[in-house]
Amino acid sequence: MSHLRGLIADRIRTTGPMSLAEFMKLALYHPSYGYYARTSRRTGRAGDFFTSVDVGPVFGELLARQLAEMREIVRALDACPAAGSRQPAEFDLVEAGAGSGRLARDVLDAAAHHYPDLYGSLRLHLVEISPAACAAQVETLGHHASKLTSTTHSLPEAVSGVILANELLDALPTHAVVMSDDGLREVFVDLDSVPGNATFVERELAPSTPELEHYLVRVGVRLEPGWRAEINLEAPAWIRRAAHSLRRGFLMLLDYGHDAAELYSGTHSAGTLTTFQRHVSSDRAGLLQDPGEHDITAHVDLTTVTSVAEESGLVTLGRLDQTYFLLGLAGAEMLDDDVFNPSATLSVDGEPRRTVNTATLKKRLALKTLMVPGGLGSTLKVLIFAKDVGTPKLKGLSYRTRLT
Q1: The pTM is what?
Q2: 271 with 284: CB under 8 angstroms?
Q3: Distance set, CA 339 to CA 208, 347, 364, 377 (Å)
């Protein structure tokens, strides 16, 4: 029996069945044995799943374009530097769930090359709870390490700039509920009743908190008998903390999710909980097996995220598929169909032949992966909120603000 499995089993024996949210918290975030705690990286070919960062540096390059524009907006509103000063106003970039800092490195690479004002003013804050990932950040950032202002477990208190969270909310511990003929029930994790057996099983019991029923009432949805769903109470709490931390600037979220009317509909009547291990996904059948050995995720309720952000003083600038966000940022030079280098030609029987510019082709293939509908392009959603900067027209929102 693994250390984490034994720990969870002992806790259930002592205090009784635990909510799925508590189980996920231990399975993913236990400081010694949790899935995210034990290694600095879980994604890519050698990991369990792919993210936009794994596609290549072009994702960070595109985000740098948006950050450079956001920096100019914040800078124009901030007090001007003292006369004669050559130092640009400081601009905070806070990445929540930053891992080892690979996305931040890609952003900084692009900023240093294309946006020197952004690079010169940037103060990087990486928020990460995994000790292994935190330990790898300086090495990952390389020559950008001097930009790292803080590495913390929680958001900084006062941010003037951007708080960025890429695929964070869908990995927060979530409650699971089932609608029965007698009303709402919550899914708990218990031990099999066979003496000496440490097999985890699900139990449907009375909800651990009335907030679960209140949540469904607030979003205006009704679950039919037999439907299962996830209710993430930590995501709204995180949004409130982010809104409180942001003094002036933007909150940018990229995540898997749907509006409540879709998320809590017959389309998702079995819920959205999914596990990933070695690029193989499975539904909740494998959820309780080998805690700490696989990722667990559930789609985000974008309706609640938006309403909580607005209630917390933020202004919604845009909600859209990643496809349209990146199309707005890519620009004509990235989307040019000519992936050939006309200066690199070979002669075959006296006839010129164009050769493929492999660097350009690689970038275009990466863009296709990031944008194609049905893949990362439409499954990932982008939500951008603002505070104390008005309602600027952002490049990332210039193509189409469509949420599918």
Answers
A1: 0.88
A2: yes
A3: 57, 19, 8, 21
368 vs 64: CA distance, rounded Å: 19
Amino acid at site 325 = F
Residues facing residue 166 across a β-bridge: 254
Q: Given pLDDT bands bounded at 50, 70 and 90, which one contains residue 344? A: very low
CB atoms within 10 A of CB 283: 12
The span from the CA of 26 to the CA of 60, in Å, is 31
Q: Where are the domains of the chain?
A: 52-173+233-269+276-330+364-397
Strand 122-127 and strand 91-96: the pairing is parallel
SS3 19: strand
Backbone φ and ψ for 153, nearest 5 degrees, come out as -90, -10
Provide the token pair at 160.
Answer: 């003037």
Q: Which two tokens stand for residue 236?
A: 């709204």
Given a contact cutoff of 8 angstroms between Cβ atoms, the answer to whether 52 and 44 are in contact is: no
3-class secondary structure, 238: helix
d(Cα 381, Cα 257) in Å, to the nearest integer? 7
Lookup: tokens for 140: 């990952």
- Class of 52-173+233-269+276-330+364-397 per CATH? alpha beta
| DSSP class of 388 | S
Residue 1 CB: number of other CB atoms within 10 A? 8
- Which segment of 11-25, 36-50, 208-222, 321-335 scores lowest on mean pLDDT? 36-50
Cross-strand pairs, 148: 124
